Amino acid sequence: MKKIAACAALLLAATLSHSPAALASPPPSQQVTGASAADARAAAIDGYKRHLAEGVARQLSERQFRDALRRELADDGEADLAALLGSVPNTQDLAAYARNANSEILKLKGMQAEGSLLQIRIDPQLVKRISAGGTLVMATPSGDEKTIRTVVAFDGNGLSQELDAFKMPKRPVLIVGLDEHKSAELAQQTIRKYLTEAGIGGTDRSAASEPQQTNVLASRPVSQIFRIVNRNDHEPWYKGGPEIYAWVAGAGLDGKARVDQVEMPYIQEEGTVYSPGQTLIDWSNFSWTSVDVIFMEHDDNANLSGLVRAIVDGVLVVSGNGQYVQVADQIVANLPTGWVTDDDDWVDSCYNINRQTTDVYCAAIPTGMSLVLTYRVV
Fold first, then answer.
1. pLDDT confidence bin for 160, thresholds 50/70/90
2. How far apart are CA 269 and CA 365, in angstroms?
3. Which end of the chain is more exposed for a tag (fewer CB within 10 A), N or C?
4. Residue 131: CB atoms within 10 Å
5. Contact assessment for residue 79 and residue 73, using Cβ atoms and an 8 Å cutoff
6. CB of 247 within 8 A of CB of 260?
7. What is the overall mean pLDDT for the chain?
């Protein structure tokens, strides 16, 4: 096992040596910017995940490991990969690699956190079918989903084979990737930290943090989501549901730029109508009578510093304007290369939403979002 891990580590090091996103970050003067840096970061993250997928596939021949897998995946089909490997005998080398990989992936994504982002998952209905010879293991690719036609999976001998990226295979497939919920939470926290440092105010909300009914003196006017539909989530079979969130952008009560982040974890299927009653816009936070809303999707390979720069540069238009001006297009125009032209991380934009707005058809992308808002006081 040590020999296998050592060889794999050398192979990964050789791969990363061609990338500026290697284990040790180069000085700023040597760092590659733009699309090449994003590609290098994606390649580095993929290298870690792919080696772990191959290692897990080889471990399927061990009954103790298969039993541990079934036990940990039994409830919802998801498990912390590093913790799982650390709990099974004879997987110490792979567990150590997973811990190091998790640390480096966090650095590549610009995040600081305790615990592991690495996850292994499978369709819960297939857990009992996990076997030594009939199960494949793959890693989620970080490339542009529209251009990926096949994905690589490994069998119990460590041999690779290609799977159709658009059609779920009939045999069980274990998927090594990042915990999307944890990643989304960390991304939200990281973005808020950077925005605060840049002098841009705002709050972060999720469906679980709705304001409760209060007395009249503490009442707040809000626009809540009565109905929402994501018409195309662009997610292939090997990824979980889309991690949709929104930026509500305008001028705060102090007249300066404000961006509220709103997480929407309940959106799991395209074309499905959801009625969350979630607050999208808290009007007590804004001095403008209209705001813009930009819908986004969290991504494995998110360039968080690039996202923050896009927001900061985009909301500069707020300065000096006492009434509504369009902010959404300014932010989208500043998104890192790939977020608009290649990836589907930018979902849609909605313009000039005010307290009287009810039916909202975000016009930026025909197959993006549509929603119905209700105005109320809470």
1. very high
2. 18
3. N
4. 12
5. yes
6. yes
7. 83
Q: How far apart are CA 316 and CA 307, in angstroms?
A: 15
- Domain end (from 178, 202, 223): 178
Of 154, 178, 202, the position where a domain reaches its end is 178
- My answer on whether 243 and 278 are in the same domain is yes
Count CA within 13 A, CB hemisphere, residue 115: 10
Domain count of the chain? 2
Same domain, 171 and 186: no
Task: Please name the residues in contact with 323: beta carbons below 8 A apart, sequence gap of 6 or more.
Answer: 288, 289
Q: Which two tokens stand for residue 371?
A: 């929603």
143 and 67 housed in the same domain: yes
Question: Is the same domain home to 238 and 304?
Answer: yes
> What contacts 253, CB < 8 A, 6 or more positions away?
285, 286, 287
Chain centroid to Cα 137, Å, comes to 21
CB 139 within 8 Å of CB 53: yes
pLDDT of residue 32: 38
Out of 28-37, 229-238, 313-322, 357-366, pick the least confident: 28-37
Q: Kindly state whether residues 248 and 332 are assigned to the same domain.
A: yes
- Name which of 28-37, 38-47, 77-86, 122-131 the model is least confident about: 28-37
The whole domain housing 324 covers 181-377
Are both 41 and 96 inside the same structural domain?
yes
Compute the average pLDDT of residues 347-353. Answer: 91
% of the chain surpassing 90 pLDDT: 53
Q: What is the pLDDT of residues 51-105, one digit of tens each?
A: 999 999 999 999 999 999 999 999 999 999 999 999 999 999 999 999 999 999 9
d(CA 15, CA 154): 19
- 144 & 238 share domain: no
